[in-house]
Structures are given as structure tokens and as C-alpha cells.
Amino acid sequence: xxxxxxxxxxxxCKYHFRVLIGLFLLLISQNCWAxxxxxIPLRLTSDSITKIELQDWVYANQSNDIENLTTLLxxxxxxxxxxxxxxxYKIGIKNYWVSFSIFNPNDHLSRIIALDNPLLxxxxxxxxxxGELVSTEVMGDSxxxxxxxxxxxxxxxxxxxxxxxxxxxxxxxDSKGSISLPLVLWSSNDLTRLTETKNLFSGMQIxxxxxxxxxxxxxxxxxxxxxxxxxxxxVLGLTLLTATIHGVxxxxxxxxxxxIQQYIFIIIIPLTLGFSLMFTEKVLQLKYHNLxxxxxxxxxxxxxxxxxxxxxxxxxxxxxxxxxxxxxxxSTILMAxxxxxxxxxxxxxxxxxxxxxxxxxGCIITGLIYLGLITLSISPQIPVMIGLTFEVIxxxxxxxxxxxxERKAKFEIQxxxxxxxxxxxxxxxxxxxxxxxxxxxxxxxxxxxxxxxxITLRELNEVNxxxxxxxxxxxxxxxxxxxAFDRRLIAEGRISRRxxxxxxxxxxxxxxxxxINDQYGHLSGDYTIKMIANTLCEYVKxxxxxxxxxxxxxxxxxxxxxDIEGALLVAEQIRQAISELTIxxxxxxIPLTVSIGVSETIIESDEHPMLLLEQADKALYKAKRSGRxxxxxxxxxxxxx
Length: 641
Description:
By secondary structure, the protein is α+β, with helices and mostly antiparallel strands. The chain has 3 domains: 42-186, Immunoglobulin-like, CATH 2.60.40.2380; 194-411, Rhopdopsin 7-helix transmembrane proteins, CATH 1.20.1070; 482-640, Reverse transcriptase/Diguanylate cyclase domain (Alpha-Beta Plaits), CATH 3.30.70. It contains 17 helices and 18 strands.
């Protein structure tokens, strides 16, 4: 009996073991299948968060020999694999394809896709809607900055989502540098706020570095100090490097010369290292403490300056790896030098070592992020940027200490020679007093002349303002003239376009004005025009509204932020008021009516205001043809925009 039971238990264990193995293999196969297919698209609705990191929906193609989209679409789905965010960053790659999809079920939405890596050489975006290619965009720092769809330090691509559409994006990446793809889907408002914050911090960092650089340069020029000269060159190199990493240099310094952007890193890094070595030699005073270290620093400086010339002629990816090795090696050597000098009693060495250590820690953290050994929710460049800023400030403190030591030494020498220089000092003080008196007199004269000049400039400005106002006022009616109307029309059109508010135009023409001139004379006609201008000003009272004489017996009125109902109401009030107006001139009662054409829309383009003016003119002629003394509205058709 017992052997039989044992045999049954063994059979059941084998069965369960086989089932578990099967389930385990099925789970592995499903995971592998899910990681290689294109996956379900991101579902986007009006309730979605305004910042969506797209890494969970991005897939990369495993082939690197595909040159165009047609060839890519012919590849099987299992050639796509989901991007692993923990994998090391790649340096130097060509024909790297990534893809993601976004589905919008119900809403009309507008979003911006942001690729926060301004150092990519070429990014070609293929935009498909429901499987049809609708747009192709090429950008990158190998192209002029103006070719980007939106002017920004990073790469931005705006997208409008219609209900029921599936948007698929294929990105072809070519770059000699780091292939970091932080793709984020933003709302425009949140992206603007983030961009302002990032620009503030990067601007503060660059401004701080530039201020330290200029301060050191001025001290170097004033004191002929080699230490400050080398330090200013070192900080200037770091400033350019920081501005380039943030995309600021390419946007503001050389936007039309992408060739500079391609080689700036491998040129500025060895140049900055050279200045750093020369500065280290001076600040640690190796000439007086260790001649062997002095020779090593000078040899490495010469090699770095030589690399500045050689680097543009070698492979870019190899150059980056080589420079990373050089930076790490030189930083380690300089830290060792500073520690040796610190233990030897050199006063400036401990603070110098702390600065170098901060830079080293930043470089190590950035390197670990690039290698995928650690994962932090920050950009990989941030740790090394913080380390650079900390090191620059620390080195400024080292220079300040050295400057203070030199000042104290000079003060002691001055104290020793005080008695011998007493007479010379008295003569100098007397000369300074005389100079101060002369300077005071000169300053008083300058102030008087400055006051006279300010009065003259104020009077001239007032005259210019009067002339400008006269050039914009119609001399007969006192309202704005045609030139002022044209400028105001363009300005209000831009405001309507930016704020998406309606703008209305009224074109007003005096009915049978020629008969008035023929029957009552031109003076009566001029008087009639002035009375109508006064009436228009009475009914158009908002500061933003504009009444202008368009030409002859025609007037034009701009009504910003006014829809068609409001515009028609104002037009009807004006028409009725003028028809009831009693005009008596030279004993003659002049009957008077006007025809008014109205147009209204929200401006969408730079040409749109002129179309609005044409529609108002058409509405005016419609009123004329309908029997005069009427208000007509001519709607602006969509196909006319």
C-alpha cells in the first residue's frame, strides 16, 4: 500500500512541476513579446496630466542601417524593442530610430513634444495621423537655429490632436555626441513655466560665471597678475561650456554657424584644462614649493593646448571618450597635488582641494548616470554643472585669500617705509587736495552743462511729440488720419491674434456727399464732415477704440474686443444719430444720412486684418446698393482667410 501511495505522490509532483515550468516559460515569452512589439499608444484626454514623460511608450528599432521611413515601415514588428531607461547612454550613433503613438479619443487638444537634449546633431520627425504621413520636420544643432519649428534651447514640436485620431511619431536620430532622449509631452502653459524656471537658473549660473570671469579679468588687467589672467581664461571656458550644454550659445552666439556647435566641445574642453593647469601652478605657488609639480603642470598644459588644435581633425566620438579620460586624469593629478601641498602646510591648498573634490564628485555622478549605474530624476549634466559652479566659486575664494595675503605683505612693506615716505605723502596729499578741488569744480561745471542739455533735450522731445501727433491727426476733423489707422489696424490685429479676441471694423460713408458740395458749397461739405467726426467721437468712447478719417467723406472705426452684436449696435446708434442730426451752415439746413459697413472676426494671420478691411468695404457697398442710410454686415468666409 505504501509504495503505491508514494508512486502517486511522485506522479502528482511531476505534473505540478511541469505546469509551473510551463507557466513560467509562458510568462517569459509574453514579457519578451511585449518588449519587442510597438505596444498600445498613449491615451490622451483633457483629463490627462499636463506633463507626460513618454519613456514608457517609446520603442527603438534594433537596426542601424535604415535611411528612410519607407524602409523602416517594411521591417517586422519584432524589430522594435522598448527603450530601457536604465541602460547606459550611447555616444555617437547613426540611423537610430525610435517611435511612439498617442491616441486622442474625444477632445480637441494642443500639446508640445519636448526633446530635452539640445546637443543632438540631427533629429528628423515623421508625423503620421491614422497611418498617413502629414508632416516631416528636421532639426538639430547641425542645422541653423532658425530652422526649428519653435525657437527654444531644446527641441520642440507642436501637435494638435483631433478626436478619434491616432498620432504616430518616428524619430530618426543622428548624433556624434550623447544619445539621451528625454521625451516629454507638455501643455504649452506648463512648458512655458518650466522653460522660464530653467532659463532663470541657467541664466543665474551663466551670469555668475561670467561675472566672476569679468571681475578676474579686470583685476588681472589692473594688477598685471598672471593668476587672475589664467583664472579668467579658465572661467570663460567653463562659461562657454555651460552655455553650450544648456543650448544658450547656439541660440544667441552662433545661431547661423552650426559648424561651431559641432566642434565647440572638443575645442573648449582642452583649452579650459590648459588654463586650469596654468592657474593651478600660480595659485599653489609651485615655483616656490615643488619644481617637479611645476614641470608636470606645464607639460600637461602644453599638451592640452596642443589637443585644442588636434581634436577637430579626429573622430568626434573617440575625441569625447579621450577627453573624458584626459579630464579625469588631470583632475586626479591636480587633486593629488593639492592634497600633497595641503599636508605640506601650503595655506591655499586645502581650499583648492575642496574645490577640486566638488568638481570630481559632480563628474563621477554624471558619469555614473551616463553609464546607467545609478538612476536620478535629474538631467545628467546637472551634477557636473553644480560641481563646476562650486569649484569656480571655491577657486575665487582661493584667489581672494591669496590677494589678501599679498595685500597684507604689501601693507607691511609700506609700514616699514612709512617714515622715509612721510614728506612725499604730504606732498601727494596736497596734490590730491588740489585735484579734488579741481575735480569738484569740474563736476559742478559738468552738472550745469548736463542740466542745460537735459532741458534742451526735453524741449526737443516735446516738439518731436507734437510733430508726431500732428502727423497722425487729420487737420480738418481732428480725428486720426489714414496713416494712424493703418498702423493701429496692424497692432490691434496682432493683439486679437495673440489673445484670440474678436475685432470689428466700421466703414462709414456720407450718402450723396457730392450733392452737398454741389448744392451748398465745399465749405459746407467740410463743415458737414467735421460735424460727423464729432458725432462719431461721441458714440465711440472706449480708450482702445479708434475713429479715423479714411479718406474724403469716408470714416473708419476700429472696435477691439467687440463681437458682431456689439459692432452692429454701435453702427446702428451712429446711423440713427447722424440721420437725426440737424446741420445748419450759412443759413442752410443740410439733410444728412450715412451708410455703414460692418465686419468682425478673430485675427488668425498677418494678412487677416486687410481681409477684414476688405469685408467692411464690401459691406459698405452692400449698404449703398440697398438704398443707403443702412447698416450692413458682410461675414468673413472661412475660405477667404
